[in-house]
Amino acid sequence: MNPFIINTFIAAILIGSVAWLSGRSPIIAGFMIAMPVSTLIVLPMSYLQHGDQEATVTLARSIFIAIPVTLMFFVPFLLTTRLGLSFWQAYFLGAAILPVGFLAHRMLARLI
Q1: How many CA atoms lie within 13 A of 93 on its CB side?
Q2: What is the pLDDT along the chain (112 residues), one digit of tens a residue?
Q3: What is the largest CA-CA distance in the chain?
Q4: pTM of the predicted protein model
């Protein structure tokens, strides 16, 4: 079977399961999605597909840098009460902040 299809199926199951769980227990779902579950899945998939240890280590380093940078997305959600933001305003503001995070990630990734 095509590795892309297998990877897509695994990712879909993971995301769908956590989305379902978020209706029953949002705190547990939040913890699960914040855990490096996707990293635990993608690193061996990358290595098995490409057989390139150096590329996989570079991927892991990039993820390490990206995690704190991508937390910028959540800043508007932390400020919803203080700024009177709706869910969608916080969501789109967080998404608008992500390109700044991406630029920071690129700069930091070049240093490591």
Answers
A1: 15
A2: 788 888 888 888 988 999 999 999 988 888 887 777 778 888 998 999 899 999 999 999 998 888 888 899 999 999 999 999 999 999 999 999 999 988 988 888 888 7
A3: 51
A4: 0.68
